[in-house]
User: What shape does this take?
Amino acid sequence: MSQNREGFNPNSPATNTGTGSSYDAGGTGTATALSQTAQDYSHKISEAASHAKDYVSDRVSVVGDKLKELQNADFREVAENAKEYARKNPTQAILISAAAGLVLGLILRGSRR
Assistant: This one.
């Protein structure tokens, strides 16, 4: 086996230089660190998913309640409430209308393809 000019033999096993790094001959320190990092991220992701699930289920129940209210409501009353809201909050009404139009436009445009 030959060595290059610096005395490095590429075929020899790696050794720890004693510089305080966590690198060792088998690479187990790096593998352990990667495993720990993966476990940490896995825990964070499962926590975030749990929070998202709780949030979505809360929102779904609110939407369900509103739909039940709308089924029993008179459409004239709903229209009057919408007009009253728009008079009290014109900026929000415009933003809500723009958002609804954008969503409808994307839905209708996507169905033509």
Q: What stands out?
A: Confidence is low (pLDDT under 50) at residues 1-5, 15-24. Helices lie at 28-72, 75-88, 90-111.
